[in-house]
Amino acid sequence: IPAGRMLQGESQKLLQMEQELGKRLIGQSKAVQAVSDAVRRARAGISDPNRPTGSFLFLGPTGVGKTELAKALADFLFDDERAMVRIDMSEYGEKHSVARLVGAPPGYVGYEEGG
User: How far apart are alpha carbons 9 and 70 in whole angstroms?
Assistant: First the structure.
């Protein structure tokens, strides 16, 4: 398959991104648009190639579609909705609990172990 044809196929796929993600999400058109724009910028070669395609932080109350958007995006990009890193931030409500994620600060037990 010629590289140009593969790129053309990806271009067509990226143009349909909002429509595809929108099939799984209701009432989140602004979030879908923002994520789609960021992915297209990364894939268009305008962004730094040494950076990830995207790093997204979805905020909001329970049940608004944060996890579903992440799953839909992973499925769209990688054909596997599990191809993502999901961190449930409700587990890090206390100031000290973030040490489980990033590691203990110097002088504390577990400092050498990291996050």
Answer: 23
